Amino acid sequence: MIFVWAFLVGGVICLIGQFLMDVGKLTPAHTMSTLVVVGAVLGGLNLYEPLIQFAGAGATVPITSFGNALVQGAIAEGKLHGVVGVLTGIFEVTSAGISAAIVFGFLASLVFRARG
């Protein structure tokens, strides 16, 4: 049953993003930024973690999870190191994913040619 909930919750998050682009006429960049902010707000209100517990990958794979990760990292490090920890916590939690995206993007650019 966890797969069904993951599929449905992830699908609803994607549906909201598509709705923002089609009906709200937002650009993909604005839509992505909006979903990150929504994830951050839900994470700050401690509402995103129960969603992760309920839906698993359906809540951790979409971009909203990135906003949640930013806030959770900032909160955790802020408790340990104060204001400086808020800034370093954001980078500490997300650095592995961002670094992987940069490295794999670079490797893909070496293998494939851009069209256009």
From TrEMBL:
Membrane-crossing residue ranges in chain numbering: 30-48, 55-75, 87-112
Pfam families: SpoVAC_SpoVAEB
Lineage top rank: taxon: Bacteria
Keyword Nucleotide-binding included in the entry's annotation: no
InterPro entries tied to this protein: Spore_V_AE, SpoVA
UniProt keyword terms in alphabetical order: Membrane, Transmembrane, Transmembrane helix
Cross-referenced NCBIfam families: spore_V_AE (TIGR02839)
Name of this protein: Stage V sporulation protein AE
Species, as recorded: Tumebacillus amylolyticus
Gene transcribed to yield this protein: spoVAE
